[in-house]
Amino acid sequence: MGKESFFNLYTHNFVRVAVGVPVGKVADPFYNATQIAELCRQAADKKATLVVFPELCLSAYSCEDLFHQSALLEVSLRALEYLLEETAPLSLLTLVGLPLRVNQLLYNCGCLFSRGKILGVIPKSYLPNYREFYESRQFSQAALATEEYVDLLGQKAIPFGTNLIFEWEQQPLFKLAIEICEDLWVPLPPSSFAALAGATVLVNLSASNITIGKSDYRKLLVASQSGRCISAYIYSAAGFGESTTDLAWDGEGLIYENGTKLAETRRFAYDSQLVFADVDLDRLQADRMRQNSFGQTKVHFKKEISSFKTLTFSLDVNKESILLLERVLERFPYVPSDPLTRDQRCQEVYAIQTQGLIQRLKATSIRKTVIGISGGLDSAHALIVCAKAMDILGFPRQNILACTMPGFATTKKTLEQARRLIEATGCREYFIDIRPSCMQLFKDIGHPFARGEKLYDVTFENVQAGERTNHLFRLANFENALVVGTSDLSELALGWSTYGVGDHMAHYHVNASVPKTLIKFLIRWVSKTQELGEKVSEVLDEILDTVISPELIPGENAQEPLQSSEEQIGPYNLQDFNLYYTLRYGYLPTKTAFLCWSAWHDKNRGQWPEMEKKREAYSIDQIKYWLRVFLDRFFRTSQFKRSCIANAPKVGSGGSLSPRGDYRAPSDSSSAPWLKIWEEIPSSEDELLNKL
What we know:
24 helices; alpha/beta; 692 residues
């Protein structure tokens, strides 16, 4: 993979698609064709592969009985011929709607063409004939057609029917199926069967007049169909220029991907519109592969699926040129940037964690929890969950036995933060200095530190981590309490925890499926909303500004730790990003790096959560370096810790690493395949920046 091809979205199995909503004129096909041709040129300039226009866009949808006039039908065909000529030089797949006579019957059709060649014609399956619709008066439904091929404009044997799937020869993950307007509104849309037959990109040419509330319903239909079919769904509706004799038109165009909205047009616009989205074909393939019930559905519809024909077409895309991703990409994939959505997410995460802990307490008839408080993010978050659980259960917060356990590297700052947080939340504090017991253990095993040598090795670190957990468990025995673990998803992914008798273990974990970046925002949200009061919020704000550190190796003074977790295992901003796309979709390292670079290389690009004060940017060499750290730690060195983690509730669709609930992997696997692909990532972007 060359450097420029790496920075091309098509290299990574994205495809740029467009929805066009032209301003039209009723019964003026050549005027309409000129508007469409201009939008096609704009789509090609933006390197789109496909552009979709509304139903009957060449003639206009609202022609009514004019559809039975031969002049309109003939000129619509000539307008199509004009479009074929105008778009022939463009490397573009175009879909338009027109009325078409076939063997004495008139059909409402979609026509797909590229480079001057008609690839297929698709008639409408379901004709609405209720309320304001009267299509059966003018058109015949697709089921009445006996032809499988038609001849048009001198082109012979053009595939005709509703059972056509168009596969892009240069990108076989792109498989296109087409339906028209009402086809989406019925209980079993044709696109459902097309998806089961392999189609990944579903398209709907629509007219769809507007009435109050209809836009919301359209979005619901398109979102749910794209989600159920695990597909992209591209929808284009007629806009300004249609007849308003009895109806109005809002020109709503939508592009969804597996339930997620990627793009939409402005409604009620008075000029032509073109909107783009970069569809992730890998995402669709990954989700279909994992969601085995999708494949199981095929068993029940073998007859319908077997009727589909797959037709290949060729369309060149220059992957050696630079083409940056324009898709909205969250820097924090676990954290929505939209404030309302993020607040809802925070409330839901807390509810899941709290319910999990409450159920475990009720099932064991235990009324107390034990938790180690370090003055850092994870333990602060877990303490908040414990406090919420006690409130719901009606138990006093004094039932939370919060332990501060300073060691050889504990700083004054974090110790004070821990004790103030315990006091502010109203828990019972246990202050346990672990240094004497650690020193005894050093003496027992003959560690040089016991003789005064400053040897800060892994044993030195793990003795402290183990002593803390040992105290927590023994205190839990003594008080008939349950040890609540604090380690988070990011640490589990990177193996950044002390195995066994360490932060790896607890009676019950509440953070095990919550990544570090989300924990930061959860704490910010609690602080902002003052869920636990003003004093708690003050301490939480200080904790958020504290360097993330295990505090196991002494610094030069008692004010700052020598260790920084992010300096050793990488910025959590990047590692959580890597985790999401590796765990959720199983992407190639090259694609993960491309997405990460797209999201993080320019701090002024895209949307930030407004609560994020520190805005970072990362170059491709930084992204590449830390991705290698992630891949090796995740696949080679850390699974044995995840194979025996304590129980914890799964929080998000981004996945958990529980061997019982979501992720099963061998503890002795190699990272070689991922590192082999990783080598293809460029080490710099200097040449790229010079060209932008």
